[in-house]
Design a protein that fits this description.
This protein is mainly α and 215 residues long. It is built from 9 helices and no strands. It folds into 2 domains: 51 residues, Arc Repressor Mutant, subunit A (Orthogonal Bundle), CATH 1.10.10; 139 residues, Tetracycline Repressor, domain 2 (Orthogonal Bundle), CATH 1.10.357.10. The longest helix has 27 residues.
Length: 215
């Protein structure tokens, strides 16, 4: 059973919190039990809401993880919107990380998102949810690209650049998630940032969006 999908209008803070709470429980259950072994009723019970509420918030049980995935990805895109024109991408992101340390809840959310991204490699419905989040992130990035390239948001070059940069971020997130959870590799925040910056720079080299390579 599913609804027609999540609300398209801007969410109230209360509704956003409710959806995130459901998302956290859904991600935990998917990781612990597996997607096939988890029902919408299971998610509702774990979150302490009615099954009707779950279907009102989300179009499917797998889409329940979208708010959790979005929190991490959109935070990165929002950071790019604050990126000064005269600063390198690495310098800016490293400063952002130092000036805005993650809360324990945010760290746990990022870990859960990491798990869902890794799970998306083998679960098509979770991958669909992940790609939906990336598609919205691409739309958000268009305004950032337009500002940095001094072009309009409708310019094809801007849209292609945003698509390429978002794809680069997606691939790095997937590679790191799988390496960390399957192969037990460890990454420092600086290593992740440099990988992201290098991937964005390589994917948008023709536009100069990410600036010169670091020395």
């Amino acid at each position: 059973m599913s609804s027609d999908g999540p609300p398209t209008a801007p969410l109230s803070p209360r509704l956003a919190r409710a959806r995130m709470a459901v998302s956290r429980h859904a991600a935990a259950l998917f990781w612990e039990r597996g997607v096939a072994a988890t029902s919408g009723d299971d998610i509702a019970e774990a979150a302490g809401v009615s099954p009707r509420s779950v279907w009102r918030y989300f179009r499917s049980k797998e889409s329940c993880v979208e708010p959790l995935l979005a929190a991490s990805v959109y935070r990165f895109m929002a950071a790019l919107d604050r990126w000064p024109l005269g600063s390198s991408l690495e310098e800016f992101l490293l400063a952002e990380l130092s000036d805005d340390p993650s809360s324990p809840e945010q760290i746990e959310d990022d870990l859960s998102a990491l798990r869902m991204i890794a799970l998306a490699a083998t679960e098509p419905a979770i991958r669909s949810a992940w790609l939906m989040v990336c598609d919205e992130a691409e739309r958000q990035l268009v305004t950032v690209v337009a500002r940095r390239l001094d072009l309009t948001t409708t310019n094809p070059q801007v849209r292609v650049c945003a698509a390429a940069a978002t794809a680069a971020v997606r691939v790095v997130n997937e590679d790191i998630s799988i390496a960390a959870l399957r192969d037990h590799q460890q990454f420092t925040a600086a290593e992740v940032i440099h990988r992201l910056a290098d991937a964005v720079r390589a994917s948008t080299a023709e536009t100069g969006f990410a600036g010169p390579a670091r020395s």
